[in-house]
Fold this sequence. Notes:
- The chain is α+β, with helices and mostly antiparallel strands.
- The chain has one domain (3-78): Alpha-Beta Plaits (2-Layer Sandwich), CATH 3.30.70.330.
- It has two helices and six strands, in the order E-H-E-E-H-E-E-E.
- The protein has helices at residues 16-23, 54-64; strands at residues 3-8, 29-36, 43-51, 68-69, 72-73, 75-78.
- A hairpin with a 6-residue loop joins strand 2 and strand 3.
Amino acid sequence: MAKKLYVGGLPYRTTEDELKDAFSSAGNVESAIIIIDRMSGRSKGFGFVEMATEEEAQAAIEAWNGKEFGGRTITVSEAREKKEGFKKDFNQNSEF
C-alpha cells in the first residue's frame, strides 16, 4: 500500500519531476506534487511524495529528512490527514 510523505522547506523553483527523481533513490515513487499558491501561481515551498511501500517511505524519510535539497534543508515526514480548516459562514446573521 502506498504511503504519502510530507516534504517541507523545498526551494520555490523545485519541479515535481525533480522531486520525483530525488526520492526515486529510496524506492518506487508513485506520485510527487508541489503545492501551488492559488493567488500567485508560485510554489508554497512544500509538497507530497507518495512511495509505493511503507519500507520505501521509511527509506525516503531516512535518506532525505534534514538533508540539503537545492540549497535548502528539507523536512520529510509521514503526511497527516488534512484537518478541517476555519470556515466562516457569511450567510449567518450574527449580532455583535
